[in-house]
Structure formats: structure tokens, C-alpha cells
Amino acid sequence: xxxxxxxxxxxxTRRAIIALIAIQAMTPNAIAENFKTTRQAVSRHLRxxxxxxxxxxxxxxxxxxxxxxxxxxxxIDKWLEQYRNIWETRFDQLGEVLKVMKxxxxxx
Amino acid sequence: xxFIVDKPTKTVxxxxxxxxxxxLVWDAYTKPELLDQWWAPRPFESKTKHMNFEVGGRRFYAMxxxxxxxxWAVQKYTSITPKTNFKxxxxxxxxxxxxxxxxxxxxxxxxxxxxKTTVSTTIYNESLERLERMIExxxxxxxxxxLKNLEDLLAKLLRA
Lengths: 108, 160
Fold this sequence. Notes:
The structure holds two protein chains of two kinds. By secondary structure, chain A is mostly helical. Chain A has helices at 5-8, 12-23, 28-32, 39-51, 70-107, and strands at residues 55-60, 63-68. Chain A has a two-stranded antiparallel ribbon with strand order 1-2. Chain B is 30% helix and 46% strand. Chain B has helices at residues 22-30, 32-38, 128-159; strands at residues 2-6, 11-18, 45-51, 58-64, 70-81, 85-93, 99-113, 116-125. Classes of the chains: A mainly alpha, B alpha+beta.
């Protein structure tokens, strides 16, 4: 199955995990304390986030800390910006068409 | 232009104001010969094969790339309140008009004040993957736009 950033943010629990570890890297136990779901469920979300390359596990002594890859989050903004550009171009063009229509109407 | 993406509700809302009365803006959105003049971001072109603007009717059109590649889509009108609002279900399609599901639901509202018309477009996507795909396509087209801008800039420099 293909994994990417849009799958990572598709789930509300995963979005909450992202928000949590955006502030500081955390262990799975510390993350799980913030949710009513089971530790296993949180582990599964962390695995998906890792596969999406949005978080990276880091071994520190005996503990594993999950860290957010901020740069990966920027991919979403980059894509959205492109989509936004399309609409701007489209509406600029519509503005031109309307100008011509107005002129025709006033001459009509 | 205001562009808002709300991931939890899977919607994109785009609001824009135009310096024209509502009748004209409505026509620009609902008549194929006018739509084709602006719908595709240059250098793409919009080509409407057929369009029947009534509830249950549809528009079948292609976005044509500069190298002649056609990407077809079909829009089925689900609701029309003349000069005020219309809704359609949009899906990409093959050249034989077979839709590729899932698609997206579009809701367009038109209002006029002091001779200016505001159009609010809300696009709801059944799946986030679809939103992703739409954005991916946008990415490609956006890249094309940048190339076009570069060409324009070069042309200007050459003239100078």
C-alpha cells in the first residue's frame, strides 16, 4: 500500500499526534497518555506516520522518541499553493472575459 | 481571492469578486462558449464537447495541454437556481465519457452588490485521496504555468 503525507493527516488521532510532537519529540507511552485509545492503537498510528515519513523514531538510551519532520509538512502547503495558483489564473482570465462582455453589452 | 482548505470537512472554498453585474458572471459560468474562454489556466485550453445546462444535464469537456493531451471530465448538474446558485457533481472521465469515481461535489453561489459580483465556490471531496489527486494535478499545471511565465519573461527580455 502506498503511503504518503495525505494519509498521514487523514485521521483525526494522527493529526492530534502531529500537533503533540510538533512541540517536542515524545515516547510512545507519553503520547498514548494523551488519548483514550489503547497503547496499541497509538503504536499503529505512529507506524503509519513513520511509513509516511512524517515522523522519525530516535533511539535515546532505552527509550524511543518520535520526532516530527517539519519539512515534510511543507509539502502540503507547496501542493496547495499550486492549486491556489490555478484558481488565480482562472479568475484573472474570467475577469478579462467579463471585461469584453461588458464592452459588448454597452455597445450592443 | 480567498482560498480556504478545510481538511477535516474535506472541502476547499474559493471566494472571488468580479467587477461585473451578476447576469454577466452567471453567463460566463453557464454558457459553454464563454466557459471555454477562461476555465482552463493558460497554457491549457478548455474544450467543451457538449453541455446541457439543466438539472440532470451535463457538461463534458477536456482540459487540453499545449502538446495536445486531453484530460476529460464530466459535470452533472444536480441543482440550478437561476442567477443565484448551481451545483454539480464533477468526475474525471475517459474520452468516452465514462466517469472515474469518486468525484467531487461543487456548490457555486452568486451575489451582487454595487455592481460587483461575488462568487463562492465550495468543493467537497468524498475522499482525501481525491483531494490529493486534484492537488497533484494542480501541481503539474502549476508547473506548466511557471514555465509559461518564464517564456513570457524571456519574450519580454528579447524584445527589450
